[in-house]
Amino acid sequence: SRTSVSSSSSSGAVGGIIGFPQLKSQPPFWGIKVRLIWKLWQYVAEDIKGYAAAHYLDEENRHVCLVEPCRWHHAGGSPVSLKRARGPVRQMRPDMHLLVQRYIQPWTGGFDVGFALMLNAGHFSTHRSISIPEVCRASVFISHTWGENFEDFATTLHRTLSPERVVWVCSLALDQNSDIAGSLHDLDTCPFSVALRASQRVLAVTDDSAQALSRCWVVLEAHLARLYRKPYDIALPDDTNVDQWQTLREKLEVLDVTNCHATVAKDKEAIL
User: Fold this and answer.
1) What pairs with residue 33 in β-bridges?
2) Which of 37, 169, 248, 267 is the most buried (most CB within 10 A)?
3) How many CB atoms lie within 10 A of CB 8?
4) 29-54: per-residue pLDDT in tens?
5) Coil, strand, or helix at residue 239?
6) CB 150 within 8 A of CB 96
């Protein structure tokens, strides 16, 4: 149970070893510290920006190489040449989609857990006396869209929250190599809903376009925050930028859930 994990972890090294495997079935413990997200950005920054600059996406979201032969390693991608691209193409962005495809999925393949739990397991292997809740239990649920640049996302968290704050981020919490759609069939009991309900507060992260507010999942998470009476805040990469807050205000004034978008059409149907 959730209680037994907390109590066993506080007893020291032995408790940590016993309690940790139980976390695979407890979404509130799939959190990650803000400083590790910042380190993740610093680690992938040069590669993800270079890769995105060297590729387009076609209408099937395949990675379209701008140069032949392309010398990039296409981890997690389906590369095609520009002449074989289908439909209109658009510039690839170093966003959460690319982060998951290029790094998170390859790194976590075969472990049957999300990136956060995998990373924390490695930490516990050498620091077994540390409290499990201290490292794994998320106190802040992060609401965001995958379409924003990962740099903006990491920067916002880095500037807004304490480095030691444990946060719940769907792309890093969920097993990205599993049937995620199947785990979302019940919006009341799915992992992200359970994690949000167990958190202390919800923080919506968006960039200067405020596009997060037009995403179905973000709107749903705002609704759940209100339903569960969780404090709800919005953060930008630069909180001092008046123009960005004005854009955010304009989005909120015309917000209509029926006009919101989801990457998977069935997700919107389920939410509505």
Assistant:
1) 166
2) 169
3) 18
4) 999 999 999 999 999 999 999 999 99
5) coil
6) yes
> Could you give the CA distance from residue 213 to residue 175 in angstroms, rounded to a whole number?
25
Torsion sign over Cα 13, 18, 19, 24? positive
Counting beta carbons within 10 angstroms of the beta carbon of residue 24, is it exposed (0 to 12), middle (13 to 18) or buried (19 or more)? middle
**pLDDT digits 0-9 by tens, 179-212:** 776 666 677 788 989 999 999 999 999 877 667 6
pTM here is 0.83
CA atoms within 13 A on the CB side of 186: 5
DSSP 8-state symbol, 23: G
Determine the 3-state secondary structure of 141 from DSSP. strand
Q: Which residue has the tokens 């390859």?
A: 106
pLDDT over threshold 90, residue 4: no
> What angle is formed at CA 214 by the lines to CA 212 and CA 219, rounded to 5 degrees?
80
Nearest to 42 by CA among 125, 141, 121, 151: 151
Taking the C-alpha atoms of residue 17 and residue 4, their distance in angstroms, rounded to an integer, is 13
Pairing assessment for the beta strands 140-143 and 201-205 based on DSSP bridges: parallel
DSSP string covering 81-125:
EGGG--S--EE---BHHHHIIIIIHHHHTTS-S-HHHHHHHHHHT
Is the model more confident about 80 or about 185?
Answer: 80
Q: What percent of the chain has pLDDT over 70?
A: 78
With the C-alpha atoms ordered 174, 179, 180, 185, is the resulting torsion angle positive or negative?
A: negative
Cα 156 to chain centroid distance, Å, stands at 13
